[in-house]
Write a structure and sequence with these properties.
single chain, 468 residues, eight-stranded antiparallel beta barrel, flat
Length: 468
């Protein structure tokens, strides 16, 4: 295990060094010397006193003076451009036709639709029924930069993935794990306007932890508000290395073909031309993009707080739970003056209390969007449906106040009702309870981190672009 940790640390350091060699913003500066010339001409005429008769001609009294000034100063013009092709925090892909004899992971179409009964209540997964999507790929920390190959042929990129886990089924003997995974890709564009569509063949190489090669081709649709859809087909082969689990290390050969579907949020993709366009001129499709939104709430109908589940009645905390969204985006729709938005989040949690909570992955959220007092303050009434792994409805309203470039203060009010799962759980005293059904109103306050609210003038619909 010690060697395993050392290799992981070496891989993390390698990733940090490689990423540090290339920033995500390219800055260009033009230095000018500005010279201003100023000349003041003053003309005065003074006629001398006395008699001017008898044809006497006096000398001219006209006086002309010139005052010349030269002022020089330096001027610096700074322009900032995106310096990456792709930048993503997390990607998950559900794999079909990849099983190597092991059971299914039960992670759903996109690889993150887990079984809540298995993870929260300890119930064993159902592996008796056949499933199409049996495996998954998980990638953390993805970055791609422009690659100038073949006489600067366009749309080539090279990239680094900080951590990658490829698991064709539930068996740990078939698992491949890479740190600092290198990739080379070429994008063939099908649609050049948002949402972008391209066919992208690529090759991945992993040398740290597991040693494997992964040739693949992807159909990419995005990036719109950081949301992307990808369909994959590929074949992976290599040595498992130190990726096995248990008391010993496994180093067997693993190979499997696969097809997969992936959906990502907080995943930004630039065309090559966009790397030559200043940040301030980029088109935006979303009213809001955020990494994390977290609110502490007090809910009705909750006898115990999630923070102190053993206290009830008068001793119970009025702070009963929280709501959380990770990797969220709200896309502006090109009608009704862009006051309607639709969006989703990678993870959504509504924890009303110790016995009432729901967890959603890629929920569907329909909102109204209104700016009050200024373009920065947003009022969002919303209706949200979470279909997996919990099934519940969520309606409410949110007010967001920016307190920094990428930070917001939020006030929320809402109502949630639905089913947590299908299993029974146990409280802190070991007594069984049924947490499957929950409902309640709540009020809360919180913050959004790396949460950006865009102005109407920044939306591509407001810049004269066609409503695509």
């Amino acid at each position: 295990m010690k060697q395993h940790r050392i290799l992981f640390a070496v891989g993390a350091l390698l990733m940090s060094a490689l990423v540090g060699c290339s920033s995500f913003t390219r800055t260009e500066k033009d230095v000018h010397t500005i010279t201003r010339h100023d000349t003041v001409v003053t003309e005065r005429v003074q006629n001398p006193p006395g008699d001017r008769a008898n044809g006497v001609i006096y000398p001219s009294s006209r006086v002309i003076s010139y005052d010349r000034n030269v002022l020089q100063h330096d001027s610096v013009v700074t322009r900032e451009y995106p310096n990456f092709i792709r930048l993503a925090l997390f990607e998950s892909v559900g794999l079909a036709f990849s099983g190597q004899g092991g059971h299914s992971l039960n992670r759903g179409v996109f690889g993150i639709q887990f079984d809540i009964d298995e993870y929260l209540f300890g119930n064993p997964p159902d592996t008796t029924s056949s499933q199409l999507f049996v495996g998954a790929i998980y990638r953390f920390g993805i970055a791609e930069w422009r690659l100038r190959w073949f006489d600067d042929d366009p749309d080539w990129s090279w990239g680094i993935t900080a951590y990658e886990l490829m698991q064709p089924d539930a068996s740990s003997d078939h698992r491949l794990t890479g740190v600092g995974v290198l990739s080379v890709k070429k994008r063939f564009r099908i649609h050049d306007k948002i949402p972008y569509v391209s066919i992208t063949p690529g090759m991945e190489f992993s040398a740290i932890m597991s040693q494997y090669v992964n040739p693949n081709v992807a159909l990419e649709i995005g990036s719109i508000g950081g949301l992307n859809f990808r369909a994959y087909a590929g074949y992976t082969f290599g040595m498992q290395g130190l990726a096995g689990t248990g008391s010993g290390y496994s180093s067997g050969f693993v190979s499997f073909p696969y097809m997969g579907l992936g959906f990502t949020s907080f995943d930004f993709l630039n065309r090559q031309e966009e790397t030559e366009t200043e940040w301030k001129y980029h088109e935006h499709s979303a009213w809001e993009i955020g990494l994390v939104q977290f609110n502490f709430i007090g809910a009705s109908n909750q006898v115990a707080s999630i923070f102190s589940p053993d206290k009830t009645g008068d001793s119970a905390s009025k702070l009963t739970g929280f709501t959380a969204r990770v990797g969220n985006a709200m896309l502006a729709l090109p009608f009704l003056d862009q006051h309607i938005a639709i969006g989703t989040s990678l993870f959504n949690g509504v924890m009303l209390g110790a016995t009432g909570y729901g967890i959603g992955v890629l929920p569907i959220r329909l909102s109204g969007w209104f700016n009050v007092f200024s373009d920065n303050i947003a009022v969002e009434p919303f209706v949200e449906y979470n279909y997996t792994p919990s099934q519940f409805s969520h309606v409410g309203a949110r007010i967001a106040f920016p307190v920094g470039d990428n930070t917001t203060l939020q006030f929320v009010a809402g109502y949630a009702s639905g089913v947590t799962g299908s299993a029974k759980g146990y409280d802190s005293g070991g007594q069984p309870f049924n947490p499957t059904e929950f409902s309640g109103f709540y009020l809360g306050i919180g913050a959004g981190l790396f949460d950006k609210i865009f102005h109407r003038s920044e939306l591509r619909y407001g810049k004269g672009y066609p409503h695509e």
